[in-house]
Amino acid sequence: MEKKLLLGDEAVALGALHAGLSGVYAYPGTPSTEITEFIQLHPLAKERKVHSRWCTNEKTAMEAALGMSFMGKRALVCMKHVGMNVCADPFVNSAMTGVNGGVVVLVADDPSMHSSQDEQDSRFYGKFAMIPTFEPSSQQEAYDMMEAAFDYSEKQCLPVLMRVTTRMAHSRAVVEVKDEARKENELNYNAVAANWVLLPANARKRNDKVTAQQAQLEADAANSPYNRLTLSAKAPLGIIASGIAYNYVKESGVDVPILKVSQYPLPKKLVRQLLDSCEKVMVVEEGQPFIEEQVRGVFESQNILGRLTGELPRTGELTPDCVAAALNAQLSENPKNQEILEVPALVAARPPQLCQGCGHRDVYTALNEVLKEYENPRVFGDIGCYTLGFLPPYRAIHSCVDMGASITMAKGASDAGQWPAVAIIGDSTFTHSGMTGLLDAVNEKANITVIISDNLTTAMTGGQDSAGTNKFEAICMGLGVEPEHLHVVVPLPKNMPEIARIIREEINYHGVSVIIPQRECIQTFKRKAKQKKTLPQTPPC
Amino acid sequence: MNTNSQIHTAPSLSGRAGGESFNCDIILCGVGGQGILSIATIIGEAAMNENLYIKQAEVHGMSQRGGDVQSNLRISSNPIASDLIALGGADVIISMEPMEALRYLPYLNKEGWVITSSAPFVNIPNYPDIEEIKAELVKLPHVVAIDIEQLAKDNQVPRSANVILLGAAQKALGIDYDKLEAAIRRVFARKGDAIVDANVKALALGRDAQK
Questions:
Q1: Which fold has domain B15-151?
Q2: Predicted model pTM
Q3: In whole angstroms, how far apart are CA A484 and each of A56, A511, B139?
Q4: What pLDDT, in 10s, does the model give residues A238-265?
Q5: 3-state class of A434 per DSSP?
Q6: A347 in a domain, yes or no?
Q7: Contact state of B105 with A114 under an 8 Å Cβ cutoff
Q8: In the beta sheet, which residues pair with residue A454?
Q9: Which of A114, A346, A400, A535 to mutate to test the interface with B (most CBs of B within 10 A)?
Q10: Among the partner residues B62, B81, B133, nearest to A250 by beta-carbon distance
Q11: Which residue range forms the structural domain that includes residue A433?
Q12: Do A35 and A170 form a contact (C-beta atoms < 8 A)?
């Protein structure tokens, strides 16, 4: 055993490598990105040639992982919570196919939306797809659970969903790790075609089997070493706490009966035992009231407290403060009478902004200059650094919904009669989910202007490789964009007149135009310059 | 403005050997890109070398683009439950920017320390008057404010301003100076002697500036 100071994400990555991982498949997304990055740099992964290249999106990632599992090897899929929506089709159907080699789908939720557009709770996906779900409470558990999850996946012939949240993914702690890694699985041909060919006749059989399997999964959760029930004599209040919410309960120091939940399906047997020994139960969970709703459906709801009843905030991340206050209120314990300093009124908000020297700035400057000339221009934005173009001084975009929606929304707006309808999308987002929308637009000769602001990287998550680098013109032409309405420009202040002229001409062209401002992200540019100056770095181990 | 009261005698990492328990909750803050995570890495390395428990919650992603950033660093001789520090729970705020130091005051305990750079980082149009910021800082019982950027330039260690700040925080953290220096040597070893030496020098500059 060796002690290492690891981010939750790194603990997951190392746990997977030590569990005999053969491939990680992922698209970058905060707070999950560091898992794949850790594996990419790890010597063991290099030695074993573990697959770790970034995928074009979460759906291609999930499907490639299924292919590796089909051949008998262990695969990990990583994404942020909204990525689950993109891979929902293969994810839900992977319960029907089952697995051959173990599959763990790691999803990092982002309650309070530090870097996201919603705070959906991925545990619902696990329940909905009838897939067992793990939710570690500490970085140590995140490491340990990875091997348990792969073993369990192979034992049950089902993928396992592992859910972490921002404060687990992006918090470091000392983790005891193994000295040796398990061997990788050998290639095998045990996958049964009747399970993997989801014709209705086959899928119905699998559906019956997986449905029947749920009782066993729940019994396993009741006996899981990661779910712990600590009872005392009859108490006025008991607690069900899951994942990192368990830590906030421990931090408060209250001494009450507690059920820690880190493996689902929710073990109702343990919940029943807790309720039988308490007058009321408070459910403390990070994210949406997933356990709370299930418990209310089974037991007398007036005695179940939590986010639905207002003791805890209905939305947003939990904090040690709101958990302690809720517990103290129920236990009639006076909180420590503590004076809290205030933030002086003069402290101003400091929102994130586009970096000095960033090419997106020049794109917005040119776009705004041209659009001033039109009466009601509308600009449909997308997901990336350039979403910050909503903020002053640019105030340049009117929408940002999900990966790729800029092009398709511009098309829909144009269908409705809007002109000018401009879409602005980044390079990585375009290959992730923009290409199919562009084909729709081309097929209908929609009257839209698409700007693919290409900084040669996936910038917002820290500069990962972008799947389409050097291929954008070819992709657009392949999709049918007319060559005379496809332009590559370099977004620099000195080129402003040329860029503005091209934007103006293409807005006035009635059909699909694509303009590709192309210049490397200033952050990756600086990083590369710095790396050239300093000595070569040794990778982490 | 400089130190306006005596540094308290926190139990030092070496004091732990005498059976004394050690706890230190630290808020590290600044503007994205200023290097607060390097400070956290050095403190974490020193603490880990002493077999202490550590939890360090960071902020990644969109907020790193020139916005306010903070990290919660907790060190203890006992197991730590929460990754986040409770309101009024921090012993020290270490800030790379004076206005950012004020943003996290609700987390500081009443006898806690603020160790901050005195030089404003102005990237917003409504940045307040620096004299008013200083006036807020001096209201606090324990403040060390140093122009670390200037000090770094004057002493030919322009890229180690954050380590100067760490040197100034050393006593408030209650971590032995030698242990921080040793941690710096380990953390920067792979970047070569010149970078190790610059950071060791910066640590000493911070310690001396705080006196």
A1: Pyruvate-ferredoxin Oxidoreductase; domain 3 (3.40.920)
A2: 0.93
A3: 28, 12, 66
A4: 999 999 999 999 999 999 999 999 999 9
A5: helix
A6: no
A7: no
A8: A518
A9: A346
A10: B81
A11: 359-525
A12: no
